[in-house]
Amino acid sequence: MADARLTDEDYEMLASFRFALRKFIAFSEAAARRDGLTPRQHQALLGIRAMQGQGAASVSDLAAFLILQHNSTVELVDRLVAAGFVARATDPEDGRRVRLALTGSGEARLAALSQTHLDELEQIGPELRRLLARIQRYRRRVRGATRCGDAGG
């Protein structure tokens, strides 16, 4: 792949994709703040809810999801419990593990915020799809150039 030369268009494509992602993150953070949550609290609520289908999340699971240290995650969960958004329960199968679940208030807050995010994704979806298609075309071009270079050597 070192033989593939990046063009001005390739750099523009990568910058545009990164910009689109950053715009969505900025939107997400602002939406969380408008709803009275920090962006990290919103991410934690989303992570806890997402893991619910696989069984209740533990603090370790949530730390991995958030890419945070365990002690930072404990502090975050403490704040969410104090706010009434999350409940802790001892795992019935392993008394050493603490399981996390959203409370009714946490579910309601997350549902409203998630709908806002889905609405935004519907708006920006066409642009993201266009950028992803450009990236895929680039990858095919690079793979094709690499194969041609290998065949000639």
TrEMBL record:
GO terms for biological process: response to stress. It comes from the Bacteria. Residues 7-144 form the HTH marR-type domain. GO terms for molecular function: DNA binding; DNA-binding transcription factor activity. The keyword Transcription regulation applies. Keywords: DNA-binding, Transcription, Transcription regulation. InterPro entries: HTH_MarR-typ (IPR000835), MarR/SlyA-like (IPR039422), Tscrpt_reg_MarR-type_CS (IPR023187), WH-like_DNA-bd_sf (IPR036388), WH_DNA-bd_sf (IPR036390). The keyword Magnesium does not apply. This is Transcriptional regulator, MarR family. It comes from Acidiphilium cryptum (strain JF-5).
